[in-house]
Amino acid sequence: MATAQQAQDAIAAKLEATLPSGTTPTRMATDLSTDLQPVPAGKTRYQLKAWAGPRSEVGDSNLIYRPVLDILMRVHYHLGAGEAERTWTSGSMHSALEAILDPGWWLTISEVFYLDSFPGLEETDVSRVGRVITFQLRARVTVDPNA
């Protein structure tokens, strides 16, 4: 029986497989603060904050209630020595975003039963501080307890 924690772990594994492998995508030690762990040059680090939302009603002849996860995913990339910002933002970042923003990406995760809200990304969700470029997106998924 899949739990919210198992769903979060499955999403993290899928994210690591989606981000550019040459940048060694790794989950940061904390999902709440970037101050505790710097991002090495040329590397990708991510944070996956997930919290339980209100239960989802899946109705047919009988109502079934399933756990819901609200997710905030943050991906940080530290530009390598001499690397231009546009190399990342026009290349690898777009490839990763195209995949993650596709509802099908989420629905191939066995612990995800339903995508309650399409992944969202606003202009302010992409930023740069020093040599670190960050993007973040939000989604809400219903967990499949039968996975």
Summarize the model shown:
With 147 residues, the protein is of the alpha+beta class. The chain contains 3 helices and 6 strands.
Describe this structure in words.
With 147 residues, the protein is an alpha+beta fold. The chain has one domain: STM4215-like (2-Layer Sandwich). Helices cover 24% and strands 40% of the residues. It has helices spanning 4-18, 85-100, 103-107; strands spanning 26-27, 44-59, 63-78, 112-120, 126-129, 132-143. It is elongated and about 55 Å long.
Mean pLDDT: 87
- Percent of residues in beta strands: 35-45%
Helix proportion = 10-25%
The low-confidence runs, each spanning 5 or more residues with pLDDT under 50, are none
Structure summary, number of beta strands: 6
Order of secondary-structure elements: HEEEHHEEE
Looking at CATH, which topology would you report? STM4215-like
Distance between the termini: 6 Å
- Global outline: elongated
Total helices: the number is: 3
- What is the number of independent domains? 1
- What's the alpha carbon Rg, rounded to whole Å? 16 Å
What's the CATH first level?
Alpha Beta
CATH architecture, by name, is 2-Layer Sandwich
| SSE-based structural type | alpha+beta
List its salient traits.
147 residues, STM4215-like, six-stranded mixed beta sheet, single chain, alpha+beta
Helix and strand topology:
Elements: H1 4-18, E1 26-27, E2 44-59, E3 63-78, H2 85-100, H3 103-107, E4 112-120, E5 126-129, E6 132-143
Parallel strand pairs: 1-2
Antiparallel strand pairs: 2-3, 3-6, 4-6, 5-6
